[in-house]
Amino acid sequence: MRQYFTLILVFVLVSSLLGAPAFAAFDLKGSMKIDLGEKPLDTAISQDGRWTFVLTEGGVIRVLSWRGEQTQVIETGENYRRLVFSAVGNRLILSGGDSDNVLVISLDMVHNLDTTGSPSKGSKDAPVVVAFFSDYQ
Predict the structure, then answer these.
(1) To the nearest 10°, the Cα dihedral for 79, 107, 33, 94?
(2) pLDDT, tens digit (0-9, with 9 covering 90-100), for 59-77
(3) pTM of the model
(4) Average pLDDT over residues 26-50
């Protein structure tokens, strides 16, 4: 009987040690405070973390780079309260506004390349440039 009691006691002690919580901490490498000049209502982040979308009063979306620099302002013309980024199709979805609608904005990335001094064919004033990188590493 005594061995049985000792075995149960050892089992309880061992199982309590195995179930002990593991505490983790974050190492803060830096932070930034971004002054928008107006009160943010909601935020969303792109799937790759490169873009932050901040919804402010009047349905204005401020697009910030990962460095916190404002790169674009999107004006929706209506008051919305909620902003969600959908990774599928790169869409911003706004809701909770004064009207009964949901606004879906599809995003396409546009990259401006400086082609000054590069060999080219065609008109210098063409609205589209097709760039071919043969020495890409």
Answers:
(1) 30
(2) 899 999 988 899 999 998 8
(3) 0.64
(4) 86
Element (H, E) at 18: helix 2-18
SS3 for 70?
strand
Distance, CA of 109 to chain centre: 15
Region 98-103 average pLDDT: 85
| 80 contacts: CB under 8 Å, gap ≥ 6 | 41, 55, 59, 94, 95, 96, 97, 103
* Residues found in the chain: 137
> Mapping DSSP to helix (H, G, I), strand (E, B) and coil, where does residue 134 land?
coil
Give the tens place of pLDDT for each residue, 122-131. 787 788 777 7
More confident residue, 90 or 87: 90
Kindly report the backbone phi and psi dihedral angles of residue 40, in degrees, each rounded to the nearest multiple of 5, phi listed first: -75, 140
φ/ψ of 110, rounded to 5, equals -115, 125
Catalogue the E-assigned strands of the chain. 40-45, 51-56, 60-65, 70-75, 82-86, 91-95, 103-106
